[in-house]
Amino acid sequence: xxxxxxxxxxxxxxxxxxxxxxxxxxxxxxxxxxxxxxxxxxxxxxxxxxxxxxxxxxxxxxxxxxxxxxxxxxxxxxxxxxxxxxxxxxxxxxxxxxxxxxxxxxxxxxxxxxxxxxxxxxxxxxxxxxxxxxxxxxxxxxxxxxxxxxxxxxxxxxxxxxxxxxxxxxxxxxxxxxxxxxxxxxxxxxxxxxxxxxxxxxxxxxxxxxxxxxxxxxxxxxxxxxxxxxxxxxxxxxxxxxxxxxxxxxxxxxxxxxxxxxxxxxxxxxxxxxxxxxxxxxxxxxxxxxxxxxxxxxxxxxxxxxxxxxxxxxxxxxxxxxxxxxxxxxxxxxxxxxxxxxxxxxxxxxxxxxxxxxxxxxxxxxxxxxxxxxxxxxxxxxxxxxxxxxxxxxxxxxxxxxxxxxxxxxxxxxxxxxxxxxxxxxxxxxxxxxxxxxxxxxx
Length: 443
Fold this sequence. Notes:
Layout: H1 17-35, H2 40-48, H3 51-64, E1 71-75, E2 81-85, H4 88-105, H5 110-114, H6 119-145, H7 158-170, H8 173-183, H9 190-212, H10 215-222, H11 227-242, H12 249-282, H13 287-292, H14 299-314, H15 327-343, H16 355-379, H17 383-394, H18 400-407, H19 412-441
Antiparallel strand pairs: 1-2
Helix pairs in contact: 1-3, 3-15, 4-12, 4-14, 4-15, 6-7, 6-16, 6-17, 6-19, 7-8, 7-9, 7-19, 8-19, 9-16, 9-17, 12-14, 14-19, 16-17, 17-18, 17-19, 18-19
């Protein structure tokens, strides 16, 4: 069971966000420089390890060695503890992510996305079921080996804390908060669950990114039909080549206006829509319905949804011709910055702390993965659907587009659309999972 610790979060060597951002960009520059080598060690290295994975891992190494950190604490002479944090992830996820989605979606062929068929949704809901049944099964396994890890009673019951993981891994942050409210887990122990969320979810994302580099072999083993995906990629590529031109300063300014204008508008509207719907949801009499719709009060949900909707509308206009000036390439740059900012949130030594809870999380995610692989094999679904369906559950709207765009920039929207479905079903699925965990825990 997680216990509260009074140990301060160690202050990193570099605390200035400007310096940290510069360091992250140097890491990305080194990765792209070495990944473009056509011979030698780096050529063979990137045949095994994708550049996107390294963009995630290098910042994680810097955090592990205490050079940078997402947050830290300082104790003053009077004994007051002051918390500090880096704003880089916030900026990347709130500004650069929606801008990237707009730029990557401009050339979207919506009809071709629908032609991908039902397998994307099947794999998404398979991932959801994997999370729902994975929690109680993990508790049963760990209770037989390490019963202390699943102990606790009342507000301290571990199953109550794990319910917040279910909310996060099916929907997102809003669903996770809803589960904390529903099952009244001890807030003083909640940090341990957030810790497990960060460690296990990031390990799984890293494995998915590695798999992308071997997607052809995986698809061959799955006997997957990738024709619809390849047709979409080919169509977008052909369109991009047909409108390709040498971009001018004017092109860059207009693309910036489109992208960040959409970001600004989505932030503006979300500032009204989130509190409006939150007020409506809070007035509902049914507690179950109230908690199921908590995501409607999330600014992030509305911000991502609105910016994506704007981009889809623009894809039917002449704005889509900016793909020829490199719109999706600029969007990819933003995505890589987001990946690096996610990487800096991961301290690799955390894997060896809270071993009991980490063990539960790893078994839980393993069940999720096995079920996805089994169903993908059964319906011959491509690895793309497996990876994006999983990440739309576990990572949500911040991570699903990253995994999707790694296959091709035009596919980022698929990740967003599935993540939005995750928000909608997150709390209901998590409640079902929590009740199963309560039963197997004897709570």
